[in-house]
Design brief:
CATH class of the largest domain: Alpha Beta
Distance between the termini: 33 Å
CATH topology of the largest domain: Rossmann fold
Largest sheet: 7 strands, parallel
CATH architecture of the largest domain: 3-Layer(aba) Sandwich
Number of strands: 13
Mean pLDDT: 90
Shape: globular
Oligomer: single chain
Low-confidence stretches: none
Length: about 400
């Protein structure tokens, strides 16, 4: 039984946007809250701040110096000292950092205040996918900063191995957890089968070259020449702050040419997943794509790329198909194969997706893995209680 005189465990989560916390970490935040922890979310404020309405033990501390686009070292120095002042004032028991700048500069601030820090590498993104000075500087900063982190978590084994091979992190210091998981109760198959007058393929994600949106549209153009009734849906936002973003003019042209049906953004992707037959993400590299996990959990076949973070989700030919990156022709060929399959075969693929999501990606597995990692860093008086019967993730 908890001693009422024992101070509550305080956990801080730091990211480059409130959207990141709301979209990817809310399951973890809610579990910390359920366990009676005090939770700090430290991130720039955006419209997703409404998550505070759903919680009682959470405080949001806005970051003013964090700019995703800025490469100004003076601004990064201001960010480091802003975080240092917050950590020194708040004195959390452990800090979990997400995204590049918090991982580097937040981790250094945690070192300055002697607070245990976990860094989570959620994907390599534009910086690592493109050669140049920014990539070299980022690797130097990672190497310097991560030596002070208690643990570094990756969302797939390939990213972890890459960092180990380049000397950016020590093997024993790192772990790989499969993404942020998926709430398999919230994302569940529809009780009513969709009437398949024609098949629909869905892309969900920011409209970035790195996400494979161009390959998706090019494949749609090829397919619709032979199967004009097939629909290609896109849900996602233009991310003007990302150098890999497509232009508004490009998007408008795709819509005008009727290659795709663009549905903007949504706060509940389930409504769109229910109305389609296959999830498609031709990404160049991922941490572990949440939309694929959500589609799998709702019983949909998946088409994605044979690359880090994506290939972990698909057993080729069983719950979906894998294609090479940057290859719209190969993508179109696989989509054609799906179109020629029997309805029953596609349904079986969807069932296997759901089965895999339950066994490997249920968010309870991921949350418990983080709780075990956090408890290993805390004194016994501050450890959070976990159920012995809770599912355990097999990690390496």
């Amino acid at each position: 039984m908890e001693n009422r005189n024992t101070p509550r465990t305080k956990i801080a989560l730091v990211a480059n946007s409130t959207w990141n916390i709301y979209n990817f970490r809310l399951n973890l935040v809610k579990e910390f809250e359920r366990l009676g922890c005090d939770i700090l979310v430290i991130a720039p404020v955006d419209e997703y701040i409404h998550y505070l309405n759903e919680a009682s033990n959470i405080r949001h501390i806005p970051l003013r110096s964090l700019s995703r686009k800025s490469t100004n070292p003076l601004r990064d120095a201001r960010l480091t000292f802003e975080l240092y002042r917050i950590y020194r004032r708040e004195q959390p028991d452990v800090i979990i950092h997400y995204t590049i700048k918090p991982n580097i500069f937040g981790n250094l601030a945690a070192r300055m205040t002697r607070i245990k820090s976990i860094c989570v590498v959620t994907g390599l993104g534009y910086t690592f996918l493109n050669e140049g000075l920014t990539k070299k500087i980022s690797q130097l900063l990672y190497r310097f900063s991560f030596r002070y982190s208690a643990k570094v978590v990756f969302e797939n084994q390939d990213d972890r191995q890459l960092f180990v091979e380049r000397g950016l992190v020590a093997t024993e210091q790192s772990r790989a957890f499969p993404g942020c998981g998926v709430n398999t109760s919230f994302f569940r198959p529809s009780r009513q089968a969709r009437k398949q007058e024609h098949l629909r393929f869905l892309f969900v994600g920011r409209l970035l070259y790195d996400k494979g949106i161009v390959e998706f549209v090019e494949a749609a153009k090829i397919i619709r020449q032979q199967f004009p009734e097939v629909e290609f849906w896109v849900v996602g936002e233009l991310d003007s702050g990302n150098p890999s973003a497509i232009s508004k003019a490009q998007l408008v042209n795709w819509i005008d040419q009727k290659y795709i049906y663009y549905h903007g953004t949504t706060t509940d992707i389930r409504a769109f997943i229910r109305q389609v037959d296959v999830i498609v993400l031709p990404s160049y590299r991922e941490g572990l794509p949440k939309v694929i996990l959500e589609g799998m959990s709702m019983g949909k076949p998946v088409i994605t790329t044979l690359t880090a973070g994506c290939k972990e989700t698909v057993e080729d030919g069983r719950n979906g198909f894998l294609v090479p990156i940057k290859d719209s022709q190969a993508l179109a060929q696989v989509i054609t194969k799906v179109l020629q399959m029997d309805d029953i075969d596609r349904e079986v693929m969807g069932h296997l997706s759901r089965k895999k999501a339950l066994a490997e990606f249920d968010d309870r597995l991921i949350v418990n893995a983080y709780l075990e990692l956090i408890n290993a860093l805390l004194p016994s008086s501050k450890q959070v209680s976990t159920s012995k019967s809770a599912p355990r993730l097999k990690t390496r």
